[in-house]
Amino acid sequence: MADKVLIYSRFPKTMMARFAERFDLLDTGGKPARDVFPADELSGIRALLTGGAQPLGAEAMDQFPKLGAIVCYGTGYDGIDLKAAASRNIAVGHSPGANAASVADIAMTLMLATTRRILVADQYVRSGDWAASKQSPMMRPQAGMPGRRIGVYGMGEIGRKIAARCAAFESEVGYFTRTKYDLPYQYFPSLEALADWCSVLMIAVRAGAETQHVVSADILGRLGADGYVVNISRGSVIDEKALVAALSDKTIAGAGLDVFEKEPHTPDALTALPNVVFAPHIGGHTLESHVAMQNCVLANLTAFFEGKPLPYAVKSA
Amino acid sequence: MADKVLIYSRFPKTMMARFAERFDLLDTGGKPARDVFPADELSGIRALLTGGAQPLGAEAMDQFPKLGAIVCYGTGYDGIDLKAAASRNIAVGHSPGANAASVADIAMTLMLATTRRILVADQYVRSGDWAASKQSPMMRPQAGMPGRRIGVYGMGEIGRKIAARCAAFESEVGYFTRTKYDLPYQYFPSLEALADWCSVLMIAVRAGAETQHVVSADILGRLGADGYVVNISRGSVIDEKALVAALSDKTIAGAGLDVFEKEPHTPDALTALPNVVFAPHIGGHTLESHVAMQNCVLANLTAFFEGKPLPYAVKSA
C-alpha cells in the first residue's frame, strides 16, 4: 500500500500528478484538513506537502500526532515555524535552487518591462494611438541597461543568477548581504548604502521574521525619483503601504512585483498604478522549474518513508 | 554664420537640441521640404539629417543640387538609395553600434515579456481576477530560458549583444548569417536550418532589398507551435501577413515586435492578437543611446563641413 501524504496547501492537480503515481495523496485543496478528512485519517499522517509561504505553526502541526516530515514545494519555507518543527522532531524539506533560474528570469523580465515601460509601449501600439500619430507617451527617453547600477539584496542562488544576467546587460552590479562573498560585484555593508548607490533594487533575499518590512519608506526614498524596485522574494520584505505611497507621489519611478504581502490580495491603490508591472507569483512557474522542484519533493518524501534523512532538508531546521 | 542642415524626417525637437547649438537647422517636421522652405533656400542645402528608414531616392536627392552629405540618425540606412547617392557624390553617414545595447535590450525585453506572458500576468493581477481567485490564465507552465534554443538571425553588433545576453540566461544560442564567425555559438548555414533548430527566432539582421520578407510563412512554420519570433530590425524582414496568419492559427506561440512593415501603421488583425507584445519602434530610444547616436551625427556633420571624410560613413556607400 502506498504511503499517505497530506496535501496541505492548494495546488493545481497537474502539479501533483507525479506524486500521485508514488503516494496516496490526501488533498485538502487548501481547506483546513479537519474539514476535509476524518480525524482518524489525519491521526495517521506522517508527511505533508505544503507551499512554503503558507503559515504552518505549532498548533497546525499538533493536528497530526505522527507527523515526521513537512516538505515544501519550492525553495521558500518562511511559513513554517522551524522551532516548533524541531521540537517535535519533524524534518522540514524544500527544493533549494530548483527554481532559481526561473525566478531570476522573472526578476529580469519585470525589471526590463518596468524600466522600458513595455505596458505603456504595447498599449500605445495596440490602441491605434501610434497609427493615428497621437502624442507618444514614450517621448522622453529612459535610461537603459548599460552603466545602470543594479543593487541585488540577497546573494543566494537566485541573487547570483540575477547578478550574472545583469552583468551581461553591461550594467554595474552591487549587492548587500550580511556576509561578503568572493564575487566580482561591489559589496555594500548595509541595505541603506546599497539603496543610495543603485537605481534598481532587486529583492532576492530569503524572507523571514528578520526581513519583515526592511524595504521601508526610508530605503525607497534612497532609490530616488529615477529608482525602481523589483521584488521576487516575498511580499513581507517590502512595507507595501510605503511602496504604494512612494510610487504614487513619484518618490520612485516604478516597480516590478511578483509577490505581495497578502497574496492573492493586492491593495486597489497598488493595482491602479500605471508605473508598476505585476505578476501573480509566477517566478518559479516554468516547465523545467516545476520538474526540478518535483524531483526534490519526490526525493525528500521517498527518503523520509525509507527512514533516511531528507536529501533537501532546510539547513537551519 | 552657422552651416545649414536640413532636417528631412520628423524628429522630436528635444532630439535636435544639440545639433541646433552648432548648426542652423531647417526643420521640415517630416513634411515635403518644398512645402516648408522656398526653393532658393533648398538649393543651397549641402547636408541633411534623416531617419534611416525613411525613403530617400534619386528624385528626392535632386531637390538639393548642392547636397553632399546624407546623415542618418541611428544605425539603419535602408531607406537611402545608396547607388543614387554614390553617383551624385553624396556621402552617407550613420551611427554604427551607437544604439546596439539599447536595441539588444528591447529584444530581450520583448522575448521575456512574450515567453513569460507578462501582459496576461499583469492583467490578471491588475483586474482583481487573481484576488478573486478566478481561474488563472497562467496555469499551464511555459518553458523558461535555461536550455531554450535561441536563434539569432544576423550577427552584427546588435546580434552579438543579444547572443551574449541570452547565454547569460543559460540558453543555447545558434545563429545564421552569410558569414560564419569565430564565436562561441552554433552556426547554421541557412535561415531554414536555424528556424528548424530554435524555439525563439531573434531578427537582428541589417535590413535591405535582399532581406525583404525572408521570414516567410515557411520559416514561421519551422519554428513550430512552441516557437516565438522577435523583430527589432525592420518590419520589411517579416512577411507581416504570414505572421498574422501564423499567430492567429497558433502555427507559432507568440511574437515580440518593435518594428512593422508600414510604421506607424499596424494591421488591426495584428494588434488585436493577445499573444504579441508590441513596442512603437523604441529599440534605440534610451538616454545613452541617443547621446551616442547624436555624437555620431555631430562628428559626421562637423567633418563634412570641414571638407573631411565622414568618420561614420556607411561602408557600402
From TrEMBL, chains A, B:
Molecular-function GO term, any one: NAD binding
UniProt keyword list: NAD, Oxidoreductase
Domain D-isomer specific 2-hydroxyacid dehydrogenase NAD-binding: 108-283
A cellular-component GO term for this protein: cytosol
Domain D-isomer specific 2-hydroxyacid dehydrogenase catalytic: 6-314
Pfam assignment, any one: 2-Hacid_dh
Similarity comment: family membership: Belongs to the D-isomer specific 2-hydroxyacid dehydrogenase family.
Alphabetized PANTHER family for the sequence: 2-HYDROXYACID DEHYDROGENASE YGL185C-RELATED, 2-HYDROXYACID DEHYDROGENASE-RELATED
Protein name (Swiss-Prot/TrEMBL): 2-hydroxyacid dehydrogenase
Organism: Bradyrhizobium nitroreducens
